[in-house]
Design goal:
Number of helices: 5
Number of strands: 0
Number of domains: 1
Structural class: mainly alpha
Strand content: under 5%
Length: 90
Amino acid sequence: MAWQSAPLSLLNQYRVAHNIQTPPAFSTPYRQAILTNPGIGRQSPTMARKKEKRRISKENLALAVRKNFNGAAVNEIDVVVELVYKVRNK
């Protein structure tokens, strides 16, 4: 899957659902530019937080999601059983 082109809402939902220890991404590139460039943006509450709690770029969030997704172990038998159950009971 192309995580870089996935919508930001999907990446944030995946981050929350799978409890990835990564802060959320900026909602728009414009906001990222305003808050990361020198000036008043650096003193805003979003950027004055501890470094591990600051917002990150969409690319960094997509990288964290991709690493988590690729590292997830899948039990094929459980997946097939759940698929058959959902198809029959739909």
